[in-house]
Amino acid sequence: MITVAVVALSAERAGQIADALRRQGIQTAMAPAADVLEYLRESQCDLAVVEYTATTRALLDGLQADKALVERMPLLALTDADSVTEYESGVAVDDFALLPVSPAELGARVRLALRRRRGDEPEHVLRFNDLSIDLANYRVTVAGEHVALTFKEYELLRFLASNRDKVFTREALLNRVWGYDYYGGARTVDVHIRRLRAKIEDGHRTFIETIRNVGYRFRDEP
Questions:
Q1: Whether 47 contacts 2, CB under 8 Å
Q2: In what order do the strands lie in the sheet with 215-218?
Q3: Is the pTM of this model over 0.85?
Q4: Which CATH number does the domain housing residue 36 bear?
């Protein structure tokens, strides 16, 4: 059984993360607000999920300075879209996900990080036929050719591919990809789906399926 240490600024956020993990069959342990480093050093947790903010940046730096801890325990950062640029500036964690994150995606990323550490998953890549999504480098290729996507197009593709074969309404995609405070209409999703399809699909490839009167899903087999 996997056990994950949850590190968050507020008890409310920690509870949300822990609930999402438990819904995926993953045990959780709440790291105390004080002495987080000491707690992680002594714990038997398999992985730490850290809410990444300007405040926890110092904590992550401290975690990464502890070589023995880094070698033993993978780190997964949860951040929001506004913090992505700072995240890219040098925070060395095993993986990250944008908030809000679905329980399915969070569970998948935890398991993927553990598999990579154990040598079972050498590449941080989702592959579907000749479509490749490099989650570590924000790079998408089709038949070996790089596909230039906007940030939202990439995030939409990443979310759908990480939750393949699940149907999402336009409203759900707005919440998951654009955020709960986004006030744009559902047509925003349709426009981005259309642009995304034009870039990754052709007459022989169909990755994103329209479910009439419902929404969209990513097909495991194009």
A1: yes
A2: 168-169, 215-218, 208-211
A3: no
A4: 3.40.50.2300
